Amino acid sequence: MKNEIHELNMTLNQIYRKQDDLYHEYASHFGLSSISFWILYTLCETEDEVFTQNKLADMWHIPRQSLNSAVRTLMNQGYIKLEQMAVARNSKALSLTEEGGVLCKRAIYPFYELEERILKRMSKQERDQFVEFSSRQLDLMKEEVEAVIRQDSAQK
Questions:
Q1: What is the sign of the dihedral through the CA atoms of 142, 59, 19 and 126?
Q2: Residue 100: count of CB within 10 angstroms of its CB
Q3: Is 27 exposed, middle or buried (0-12, 13-18, 19+ CB in 10 A)?
Q4: Element at 84 (helix H, strand E)
């Protein structure tokens, strides 16, 4: 049983890495880093919502320094801008420039469409199970990681 579970875990991790590689390949084709891709992915989809760098870092679980570096790169490329927020002096909202909007039409909107096509190729039951099982696996992983960290911390 242990070997079967170990092999299953290896297969799942390889699947996750392959999926990450596909996201990276797509982003690279358009001259974007993976983090820049996720920034644009968010900004292109939601015109009405305000996003700060901290909000994006929390949303996508990206280290703040890495996200800030990607924001600077996107700004230098002319795709996004930072605008002072009226409600918070020390926070700036990220928004697309006109050039960023063009990139959304070329790279990000087609990606939304391909993601939708993928899910439409699954039955409703498969989609529901996929979300349910993925969420369950993530919850269990979080529990186990936290338990190991607690145990290790107690032994120090």
A1: positive
A2: 22
A3: buried
A4: strand 80-84
Task: Judge whether 111 lies within some domain.
Answer: yes
> How many Å apart are CA 111 and CA 101, to the nearest integer?
14
pTM (two decimals): 0.88
Q: Tokens in use for 21?
A: 């590689």
What's the domain count of the chain?
Answer: 1
For residue 59, the enclosing domain spans 35-121
Q: Does some domain include residue 42?
A: yes
Q: What is the largest CA-CA distance in the chain?
A: 59
Alpha-carbon span 51 to 94, nearest angstrom: 6
CATH of residue 50 = 1.10.10.10
| 12 assigned to some structural domain | no
Q: What is the three-class DSSP state of 90?
A: coil
pLDDT digits (tens, 9 = 90+) for 57-111: 999 999 999 999 999 999 999 999 999 887 766 789 999 999 999 999 999 999 9
